[in-house]
Design brief:
Layout: H1 4-22, E1 25-28, E2 32-38, E3 41-46, E4 49-52, E5 58-64, E6 68-77, E7 83-94, H2 99-106, H3 109-129, H4 134-139, H5 142-155, E8 161-172, H6 175-261, H7 264-273
Antiparallel strand pairs: 1-4, 2-3, 2-5, 6-7, 7-8
Amino acid sequence: MMTPLKITLGVICISFAALTALGSFYVVSEGHIGIKTRFSRAVEQVDPGLHLKVPFIESVKKIEVRERKNVEELSAATANQLPITATVSVNWTVQSESALDLFVLYGGLDQFESRILDPKLRQAAKSALAEFSASELIRNRTSATGTIQEKLVSLMEPYPVTVNSPQIENVILPPQYMDAILAKEKAREDAVKERHTLEQQKLQAQQLTQTAEAERDATMARADGNAYRVKQEAAAEAEAIRLKGEAEAQAANLLQEALSDNPLLVQYEQAKRWGGKLPTTVMGGGSNIPIIMSMPSK
């Protein structure tokens, strides 16, 4: 027969055995690395999954190796010595193969962020922002973001993490400077619009000039065509007159030759030219003047 003491001891032994069995297993979730410690000393890192450990002697700390985001608000100065307040952020990841080193050196992610990452982010951001004027930060933050990336990667090179995608979340400028910036931007936009208007007017002027030049060339072409036609017609008329003159001269020469060869042709020509009337005028003097009377016309 079991006494109460034996029953109590049995319950204690069973409970201890159950706790020991349960304490021998642990699970590391995806996106994490397990850091196994023995008497609080880190001895190895384990991948995600089910693992065994020595109960009451070994324990496990988990380090997240998924991408994390840190945000810092800081005071800085621009290249033109204007004080600003900026909010910057960065995404970063623990290099999984170096999770044990990070734990040994810094004790975990929270301490690494507060002791290393956040100060380096502020340092890189202040240094980068000091290279740009306030107006550049307002118009285009891409260059400043790239400069922060370069400086932060250089500062974080000795540490077992990867940093990427820094962002300038916000930049707060003094109100009076913001008013000046807005006025300057408006003036710049007005200048762009005016330049666009002038370019449009210049284009229209060029189009009108081209149209006028085309009409002028067409008029000149028509004038040249008319002048050429008149010239051709004048040349043709002159050639016709010349040929006619040559023909008449040739005919006169032939007639002269014919008259010289046949005297009767002279009388024939005179007879053709006499209209059948006697002369009414008496030419000559003295007593031998013939009397020529006009014959009555029939």
